[in-house]
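Q: What does the assembled structure look like for these inputs?
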Amino acid sequence: MADSTTASAPKPSSSVKLVLLGEAAVGKSSLVLRFVNNDFQPNKEPTIGAAFLTQKCQLPNRIIKFEIWDTAGQERFASLAPMYYRNAQAALVVYDITKPSSLVKAKHWVAELQRQASPGIVIALVGNKLDLCEDDGPEQDQQDGEGVDEQQEDEVARKVSTEEAKAYAEEESLLFFETSAKTGHNVGEVFTAIANGIPEASLKGPKGAGAGTQSAISAAQDSTRVNLNAGNGNAGPKEGCAC
Amino acid sequence: MFQALIGKAQQFIDIPNPLASSNADRPSKAQLFRHQFRLPDSQSPLFEITAEVTLPKSKKQSPSTPKSGQPKSWDKSNWDQDREKGTHYLGQLHLSEQFLCFSTVNTSFVSTASTSASTAFNGRTNGTGPSGNGFTLPLCAVRRVERLHTQSYMFALSITTWNGSDAGTDAKPGAPAPPKLTIQLEGSRQQCERFCDGLKRGLRQGIKEVEKMRTVGRDCYSEYFLYDEFDMKPSPTLPNGTSRTPPDTGLGSIFKYPGNPRKLRDRSKMRLWHEYLKENGRNATLVRQPDFHRLIRVGLPNLLRGEIWELASGAYFLRLQKPNLYKETLAKYEGQESLAIDEIEKDLNRSLPEYAGYQSEEGIGRLRRVLTAYSWENPEVGYCQAMNIVVAALLIYLSEPQAFYILSVLCDRLLPGYYSTTMYGTLLDQKVFESLVEKTMPILWEHLSSNDVQLSVVSLPWFLSLYINSMPLIFAFRVLDVFFLEGPRVLFQIGLAILRINGEELLEAADDGAFISVLKTYFAHLGDSAHPKSENPKHRAITNFQALMVTAFKEFEGITQSAILEQRSKHKAAILENIESFAKRTSIRNLGPESKKLSTNDLGFLYDRFFTVLYEREQRAKLLQEESDRKKKAAKQKASDIVHGASGNAPEIGRVALGPSPSQMDYDAFREFLAGVARWAVTDSPSSPTKDDSAHKSQNGYFHTLKAKPLNTSPWGSGPEPADHDFMQRLFKKWDLEGGSALTLQNVVSGLAPIKGNRDIMSSIAYFFELYDDDADGKVDREGILRMSEALLFLSRRGVNDGLSSSPSMTSMNDGELGPEGKRRENKDEQFLSAVSAFIRRCFEYADPDHPSRQAEDGVTSAMDKPTVQDTPANLLDLEDAPQTPTDAAANSPLSRPSPNAFGQSTPKPQAVAANAALDPSSPVHITLPTFRMLVLADETLESFFDSGFANSFHLADAPLPSSTVTSPSFLTHSGKLATPGGPAIPALSPGGASAGVVPPGKGLRGMLDNIVTDGMRVAVEVRRRMDEAQKEIDRGGTTRGTEEDDDEDGDDHGRDLLEGAEADAGAASLKTEPSLLDEPVGGEAGGSAAAVPSTPGGTSDVEKTTMFER
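A:
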C-alpha cells in the first residue's frame, strides 16, 4: 500500500479497521464518499454486501489509515454484518436525524457491537442529514445518496433531538456527532475523533514504525474534541477503492 | 510447495461422502428432472424411454459440426431412406404432463429407474439445465404425430411441430416451419405403447394451450426476426395488412444496448442465429444442437439475448403456463403499499444509474413495476437489494413480463435463498465457494487464511449481483448468457477463474485492501488484450475476458452442479446455525424492557421453545397437507406413474434461517408451548394414541423414496398433548396485548416476566387476581371465584413446587422418595387440595355481597343442590375415614380469623352457612383484591404457592422440564453463545414432582367437588397405593425403572439422562436415611420423578386417574 503522499515528515502510520453500520438509506456510503473523495452523489448505488475503501487521517504525530467497510443497510443484510465487523477497531453507527426508527436500529447495532465485536471497539454514533434540519436555505434535495423522500420538504425535518441521542451516547460511552454528508459538516471531525479515540496499544500498522510513544497517547487523548486537522479527511490523498 | 502437497493430499482425503450428507438436502428425481429441462414445478417425469432422434439434414451443414451428439452407428440402414441424411442423437426421451423432452445427457428420472436415490446421478450435467442436445417441447407445440410404418419391430414417430401459426412458404411470407422430428423409440413394444398412450393423453390436453403459446410467441423476437430472410428488410405489414412491429426487446432498443455493436460483431451473430433458428425451430420448438451451445458461449446478439435467456432459464415455460400473471399481479395490487415497495422506491434511482435508460422515467417505471410485481408474487422474498441491479440489467434486454418470469426463476431455482430475508443461500454459496477455492487453489487459500483475508467479503457481491456491478456490463452479460444455460455452477467457475488468473498478484496482497484492489484493477482491464506482447496477432487479439472464459470453462470444467450440491449440503447446517444464533441473539436483545427481568438463559430458552413450537407445528401441518395431497394424487393416478418428489425440500420450511417463518402463536400453539414449559399444561387424557416410537426411529434414516417422513398423525407431534383449560385461555388473553389472538415472542416474554421475574408474592397474587378480573373493576364474582379455585386445582394437580423444593439444595430433594418423605409429599398435595377448598369456603365467607340485603338468605336448600364439599378434602387427610357428607349446615361457627395452620391438618366442622349462602346464585357476591390477598396469605399452602410455587411451575432454562416435552431440535438448542458454558444447571431430578395428580383436570370444579365426596376414599386408597408403589420402585432399583422410562420418555435422550441422574441420586439417597433429611419438606423432586414415572408403561396411570374420578 502506498505510503503517505503528503509532505509531512515520516510519521508512524497504522491502519484501523472501521465498519459502518446503520439502517438503509441513512447515508453511510455518502459519509464515506465525503470522507474519502470529498464528494457527494445524490444517487449512489446501494451497497451490496459491503464496499471497501481506505483513507488516511493525519494526526499530529501519527497517520491513521482507515480501512473502511461500508455495509449494506437493508435489514436482511444484517446477518452478513458479523463478517464485516469482525476485528474492527472502530465503528460508525449511523442514523438519520429525520427518522426516529433509524435511531432505534442504531441502538440495536450498538448493542450488537458491544456484545459481539472485538472488545475495546471505538463506537461513534452519528446522526446524519443535518442539512435537512438547518435553516440555511431551502434544500430541495436530500443530502443523502440512499434515497429520496420528497415528503419531508415541508415538514419539520428533525425528528430526533440532539439531546436525546447525545444522552444515549453518553450513557453508552459513544462518541457522538451530527453530520451532513451533503455539506460535509462534521464529517472529517467524526473520523478524526475516532482516530484519536483508538487506544495506541491496539494499533498495528503494516508500515507502523513502532507502536507509537507514550506522548502520542496523551496527545491523542487530550485532543479528542479538538479539530486537529480540519478538512484533512476531505483534502487528504485519494486512494479509495470501492469494490 | 509443501503446503500445496498438503492441500493436494487433503483434497483426496476430503472426498465428500455422499452418505454423510442427509438425504433431505438432496433434490428429488422430480426436481432434478425439472431442473434439467427447466420445467415449471407442476411437471413430473411420467414416462421415459431411450430413443433416437433424427433431425432433417441441415441444408447448409457447417463442416465444423462434428458427427458428435453421441452418434451411434445405426446398422439397420434399410429402415428408412431419409434417415441416413439426417443428424441422429441417441438419448432419453421424457414425458411429463405438458412437455416432451429429449436430451442426449444420460440421466434417468423416473422412480422406477435402477437407482432409488438421486445420489446416484453424478453425471456432470446432472440437473444443470438444458445442456446436451435435444429439446424441451411443450405439448401444445406438437401439431401432428404420426406413427411411421416401418419394419414391424421398429416403433417410430414423426412429430410435426409448430409455433402456433402456419409456416411461410414461397407464396406466402412467414417464419419457416420448425424441423420435423423423427423419433425412434427403443424399448419393448409394451414400453413404447405405454409411452405413446401417455403422449396421446398429454397431446389432447395440450390443445387447450395453443392460444397461450401464440400469446407468448408474440413477445418473442425470433417470430418477428424469422418472418423475413435475414438480408431483407423486415416487411412492414402482414399479408392481411396489419402492420408489424417488433416485439419489446428491452430498454436497449430505446436507449441503446451497452457496448459497441460492431466490436461485439452483433450483426454476424444475428446472421448465425437466423440460420440456426430457421433450421432448428425457435422458442417453443427450438431444438438444441451443438451450435446452440457454441453460439451462446460467444455471446448473444442484443436483440435475441432476452429470448434465449428466457428459453435457457426456463422462464419461457413459466410464461407459457401463465402468460398474464405479470399484468394480473400488477392490477391486483395496484395502489397497495408494503415494506418491500418502500424499499424498492429507495433504490430505483440508484440501479445502474449510469445507463441512460435509468435516467429516464421509462426505465425507472419498468424497474419499479417488475420489482413490485415480484414482491407481491413472492412476498416471502419481497425485495432484496441487489435484485434492483439484476433486474435493471435484465430489463435492458427483456420486456417487463419476461424479466418478471426470469426473476422468478432466479429466486426460486438458480439462486436459491440468495435474496431471502436471511440470505442464507448467499452465505451458503460463499462457504461453498471458499471450500472450492481451498480445494482447487490450496496455496492461495493458505495465503488468504494466514493473512486473515476473508474471501467472501470480496466474492459475495459477485454472486449476489451476478457479477453485474463487478465487471463492465458487456462482460457481465456474457457471463449471464452462459449462466442461464448452465446454471449456478457458472458463477463458481468464473469466480475461481478470476482468482486463478490473478493468483500471483493475490499472493502478494497481504490485506483485504490490497486484495480488493488487485481484483478491481483486473476487472477494469477485462477488455484489454491478455497477451499484449505476443508476436502472434491472434494471441494479441485475445482479451482478458476471453481468457477468463476459457479458464473458467476448461480448467474448472470439473466444478459440476452435483459437486456444488454436495458442498451445499455439507455446509448447510453450519450456515443455518450461524444465522439462527445471530437471529436469536438479536431478537433476544430486542425484546423490550420487560425482558430484563428474566435471565439471558431463560430468554434463550423461551426463544427456543417458542420457535420450536412454531416450527414443529408448521412441519406437521405441512406433512399432513402433503400426505393428503399425495393421497388425492394417488387416487387419481396409478401409483407406479407417480414420482413423489415434493418432499425434497419439505423438512426445511419454516426454519428461522431460511427466511420468513411464523413469528406468532395462536392459542393452540400457545398450549403446546405451555405444555413444554409447565407440567400442569399437559393434558391427562390424551385424545390421540401415543405414538409408536420405534417406528418413528426406524424410518428416520431411510431414503426418501416414496414416503419421505414418518407421518405423525397426532396434531401435537411427538410432544405431549397440551391441556385446554380456562386458566390457559385467560393467560393467553392476558399476554395477548395487541388483542390479535396471537402472541409474539415479545408478548410471551413480557407475559412471563412479571411471573418469573418479580418473585414478589404481592404482585404475583395481584397478577393472578387480574387474570380473573374480567372487567378490570377490581372485583371477581362468584363465577370468577369458582374459576380461580378450579385454576388453583388445575395448576396443582401434578403437585406444587414450593419454594423449598425448587431450591438448589439437591440433596434434600432427592430424598423425596423415602417412605416418610413420600408421605409428606403426598400430604403436601392433599394439603393443597384442602387449602383450595378452604379458600373457596373463605372466599364466600368473606365475599362482599353485591346486594347486602339478600345476604340473610338461608343456604340449606342450595347447599343440597351444590353439595358444599369444602371440608371434604380436609377429610382426605384422614385416610381411614369415609367421606362425610357435608350436610351439617347448622353448624354455624366460622373461624373468626383463619389461622395459617388451621386448615392443613384440622378438619374444621363444616361452617358453611355463610358459604352456602354465598353459593346461592340469587345472591351475587364478589371479592376484591385485598380480600383475595388476605385469603391467600391466611393459608400457608397458598401463600407458598404464590410466593414461589406458581412461578416455579414455569420451567425455564434453569430447570427445564426433562421429559420429551422439550423437544427442541438441535438447530435451536446448540445455537448461540447465549447458552451458558456448561449449560444450565441441570437439576438432578424432574422438577414439579408429580404423580400426585390427585385431582382430575378439566372437569369443572363443581363436578369435581361432587366427585371428591364420593371418591375421597378411593383417592386415599390410591394415594397410599402410589406411595407403596413408589417405595417399591426405589427398592427395585434402576434397571426396571429405566425400561419403563424408555417407554414413557419417548426416547428422548436428554430427558432420560436427567432421569437417570435422578435415579442414581435417589438410589444413593435411599441408602442414607438421615433424620435431618427426613425433615426436609418434600414437594419431592426425586419423589416426583420416581413416583410419577412408575405410572407403568403407557398411560395406565392416566387410565387410573380418569376412572378414579369418573362417575
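DSSP finds 47 helices and eleven strands in chain B.
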